[in-house]
Amino acid sequence: MTATEPRARARIAEPGEGISLDELALAARNHGMPLEALRYDVTPPGLHYVLTHYDIPAVDMASWRLSLGGAVERPLSLSLEDLQRRPAVTTRVLLECAGNGRARLEPRPVSQPWLLEAVGSAEWTGTPLAGVLREAGVGPDAVDVSFTGADHGVERGVEQDYTRGLSLAEAMRPDVLLVWAMNGAALPPQHGAPLRLLVPGWYGMAHVKWLDRIEVLTEPYTGFQNATAYRLKVDPHEDGEPVTRIRPRALLAPPGWPDFMTRERFVRAGPVPLSGRAWSGRAPITRVEVSTDGGASWDDAVLAPTDPAHPYAWRAWTYDWTATPGTHQLTVRATDEGGSQPVAQEWNRQGMANNLVQRVPVTVLG
Ligand SMILES: Nc1nc2c(c(=O)[nH]1)N[C@H]1C(S)=C(S)[C@@H](COP(=O)(O)O)O[C@H]1N2
Ligand SMILES: [Mo]
After folding, report:
1. 56 within ligand 1 shell (Cβ under 6 A)
2. What angle do CA 338, 246, 128 make, to 5 degrees?
């Protein structure tokens, strides 16, 4: 097979097959957020997770423009200054990679081997996409909008610029932004400098980094990242549902201290305050429950108030645990109006949107 021969299927690891050097290379490039950083409302720079399919592209800022074309009355070519002169909005948004949790699936889909760290919370500053689309004058037959980054690569044999399509209705949402700043500073190279798309509530793949081309389409977008990747399928021959909004999840900030090699947790017996974050891109979180006996019984955690200004931020929760000597398995699950996180794996062959509950073994010392 040559490098450009298309390979339609994602590979699934053989039973018992360990993580390969290819997967390690991806894991070293695409780092997660250390889970102790769940303590911050806004993830400090450098601790936010990073996922880049190909390379971080070299962007020449002197000549950089955002082009907007396709089914519009007035195609636009905008400099960063043009965009920054438009009305600006700052919003706190949780981002999570759709592949988060993939490495624990059995059998394991071979791709970026995320455990649970592919999350981060940032304050993004940009201008609503809808205003720019209105200025261009979207044609009456438009159905989808495609967003292309400056990065280029090959994936399962298909050479491409990273591109995602979004329905026109979703693209016109007032909270969908063209973003140039993260946590009050210019976007760093790994997060998409100089401009990225922000689609609050959606898994990471929708938030196109290094964005430089927008095209309004009169036919549904059928490129690789929508039609082949990011589909929930069990059988390789089915089309599968597209991956869209973030499913509910709660994560526990690791209690106590870790073993260097195994990351196993230790605490001392007595009161142990537990805390973490919960989120959903579908609907507000209504409940977080904690189990200290591996899921045999569940108890409600205390949820911090929501901030109406930031509906897509993560939400803090706390729980007072009285730890008794021995080994315990801590588990936490979030619920939104669509339901709770599953306690048994729901497998799909790309390892997408796996919101299986987190399990944290803890040794309590007497
Ligand atoms: N141009 C471009 N945009 C991209 C990607 C990419 O590889 N190229 N990766 C996507 C994926 S899969 C995720 S999870 C998020 C990650 O954003 P972050 O690195 O800022 O956390 O960016 C998305 N946008
Ligand atoms: Mo992702």
Report:
1. no
2. 115
